[in-house]
Specification:
Chain lengths: ~325, ~325
Amino acid sequence: MLSEFELIRRYFERSAHSNALTARRAEPSGVQLGIGDDCALLDPASGMQVAVSTDMLVEGRHFAAGADPFKLGHKALAVNLSDLAAMGAAPRWATLALALPSADEAWLERFSAGFLALADRFEVALIGGDTTRGPLNICVTIMGEVPAGLALYRAGAQPGDEIWVSGELGGAALALQHEAGRVTLEEGDRPAMLSRLHEPEPRVALGERLRGIATSAIDVSDGFAGDLAHILERSSVGALVHYAELPRPAVFSRIGDAELERGCVLAGGDDYELVFTAPQARRAEIEALGKEMGLSLSRVGFVQSGDARLMVLGTEGTPVAAPRSFDHFAEP
Amino acid sequence: MLSEFELIRRYFERSAHSNALTARRAEPSGVQLGIGDDCALLDPASGMQVAVSTDMLVEGRHFAAGADPFKLGHKALAVNLSDLAAMGAAPRWATLALALPSADEAWLERFSAGFLALADRFEVALIGGDTTRGPLNICVTIMGEVPAGLALYRAGAQPGDEIWVSGELGGAALALQHEAGRVTLEEGDRPAMLSRLHEPEPRVALGERLRGIATSAIDVSDGFAGDLAHILERSSVGALVHYAELPRPAVFSRIGDAELERGCVLAGGDDYELVFTAPQARRAEIEALGKEMGLSLSRVGFVQSGDARLMVLGTEGTPVAAPRSFDHFAEP
């Protein structure tokens, strides 16, 4: 069996030398020293703030036992990139800590390939890590840079601001329902939905473009209603959202299960879309940005003064009950 | 049961506001934004490099089931601080990701108290985290600052340099043997040895003082011989170490088991002392530093040109076999 040091060297250390970033630049992305010492050493650019986030993925909780390791490597990094996107930060560096039941080389090869492919695409340097034996657990800490003063906070939404959502909501939750056998997707609908769940696309470019435009932002990891609620709490404002305006995959109308749809669209996690607020005066600019980026950006409601309460209205103007957001410790 | 968000708020978010650091300064330690958003935002000081390290602790692997959560909180941060110490970096910020079998409030209160007490002592701001349900797993990412160009690397040892060790080696491994029932420590010896294992003291101040003096450094997490070997590999040099010079607790001579002693002193992990190299010309300076700090600093051998080989010599000048370093995946 490979030793811990051999494992790190074989599957991850190469990234410090061969990933796209290091290959392209003389001084690789502000990395003074990568994997292989007690710490990595970084040189953040002057005038930039460093954005940091960490996420832990646990087998049986965030992914099923036997999940495709390539997609898992992708997702472990993607959920962290999504946090940077929600701050408007540019991805730069990541650390990866892994607990594995055994030193399974085939698994590690696929996992690192999925992780590093996404890292290369977003020019993230893998600068450090840890491997140990234990129940499968993946912990990524991501670091990015954002010009001082331009980060997008959860606090900042103002009464009168419009609320926007990128892409579509509910697809990942629908795929999860399919995998749990609670609904059966037609063959033609599966690839797109399953990809939403297992290979989410972090909205990094959108986050960066929203600097100076959005007044607040968050990514949809736990569900639209719950995540928007964080913006409302931090901003001390309320919100009115039109349920019919929430963007969702067409497959929901083919299924025709209103309750399932509501659960997925309002409370389904794992979509990793951005929810953001912006003044009405920026509407045209945001619409143009969506067109330029080829990414649908939907106006779904507006921010109100008063209590940090989210009101979701149906087509008849009656309130739609928003199911609770997914919560790791509140689940049965 | 508390929700994930309530858990974070109750036990950890206060640290962003009440830990020693934030209480003492207007701009708390370069933290523009702490826990509570998608990312934390940091302002590294100009002219400084950011040192980053991550460690994952798994129940049954790095600590026993039922371990005292206060000490566990201490140790989870201490092992990361030790990595900063080995780079000569000043601790600044940390993230903490936790997987817990259940939201055990008593456990969380003790764990966070142990973690935050050490964080306060070293002026580390807890800037972010993640909590989830799963087999107990603790992942800390630590960030520190070091003036550009002054970090201590593993590479850098030069033939002729002397090899130094702080404090004592083997105490933590001896405590582990005691806990495993393979040796029985006398009552008077237990507290000091058990404290070495469960509440290690990271040599942060020493690391910072060695900037510009040491030519290389590493912390003893896996065992003296194995960790020194990393310096030798990275520096492309060999080393000769006198076994008798390696500092060890007096309890070993009372036990009188030469094999146990050799295993603990040469290959015992978890001591979190610093091993470093420095030119002979700095010897007096280092001795004065040890006196000033009240920390024993022992000269144990010297660096040689040639293969990255470690030769440990006994009192009769014959080689002493160095047991293999602890390795998470090579263990039975």
